[in-house]
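Hello forum,

I keep getting stuck at the same step: I have a sequence, I want structure tokens, and every attempt I make locally crashes halfway through. Rather than fight my setup again tonight, could one of you with a working pipeline run this one for me? It's a single chain of 140 residues.
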Amino acid sequence: MNPSRILPDLQCSLLCEEVRQEINGNLILIGVYHGARVPEVPVVAPRICVFNRWTSGLGQFTETVRLIAPDQMTVLQKAESKFGLQEVTQQATKVVVLGGVKFETEGAYYIEVLVDDVMKIRYPLLISVVPQPPRPTETK
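Reply #2:
Ran it on my machine without issues. Output:
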């Protein structure tokens, strides 16, 4: 029996500042996030890219990326896109751009990646307030 549809695996999901493509087709991820240290909140991130690579699936799918607030319930941003895999050996790379993300408080925000409403990964993006040291005063 040949299956007509196989839910894909999420090979990787990374947050970064930008994704660029080289002339040879390779992708470059710039500024991969592990968290953000900010001088104060609220703070706005002009753009956050979510780089997802799907593999080992067959058929047409809907990817959903959600950014969840520290209260674990509020969806700050959500993006959906469609993709297809005609062979299980193929890969699909999706880049979601979240623009103007406002972080109201410090704490653990979460990125959720789903395919056809099935959660594939959920991981934290920690926003930490780190006050700036006082500037030295100039002497004349």
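The chain is about 0% helix and 65% strand. If your local run keeps crashing, start a new thread with the error log.
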